[in-house]
Amino acid sequence: MALAIAERSDFAALLKGLTGEQWSSASLCSEWSIRDVAAHTISYDLLNRYGLFRRYLAARFVPDRINQLGVDSVANLRSDEIVELFERHERPTGLTAGFGGRIALVDGLIHQQDVRRALGLPRTIESDRLMIALNFALYAPPIRGAVRVRGLHLISTDLDWSHGRGPEVRGPGEALLMAMTGRREAIVDLQGPGLDVLAARAT
Fold first, then answer.
1. What is the spatial order of strands in the sheet that 153-156 belongs to?
2. CA–CA–CA angle 37, 40, 45 (5° rounding)
């Protein structure tokens, strides 16, 4: 949870420093602007259990629809008001607090990279956050990273982390994380005989 709080605080600081043009720019998430990504990341913290069930029901339990309803729910807010929500909910609540804060940590870390990579704003991610994210992303139902990397041997070149068996894919832990979550933009930072297989699955 402490790492999730730190990640959310870092994300809020990033968003606060963006220009209006950057807020409207495309993110790595298909069809979502950076504003949409920020809205999605914080939208679940605004729901209690009843509100969460209503959103799932309204979207007929289809993940993409559920997420879009979350974005739409804060569509009328200004950018600074979205940042205020991040600051007000610095400690994750509701669904995002699940698994000891791992949902908020992994979701926040991935989506912050969706913003940073799109804007060309790299950062060095704390190794303890990245290790948890890599392990959780393998088996978290919405991500199912293990399915995307099945039959491959992932090896981080900057962390003591590896996963799987088969043709190797090597590179920074952040790039491995983004690739296993379907971000093709991260493929250029990786190498190895299994890269073509991973690239074909990174959609």
1. 162-163, 153-156, 168-171
2. 140
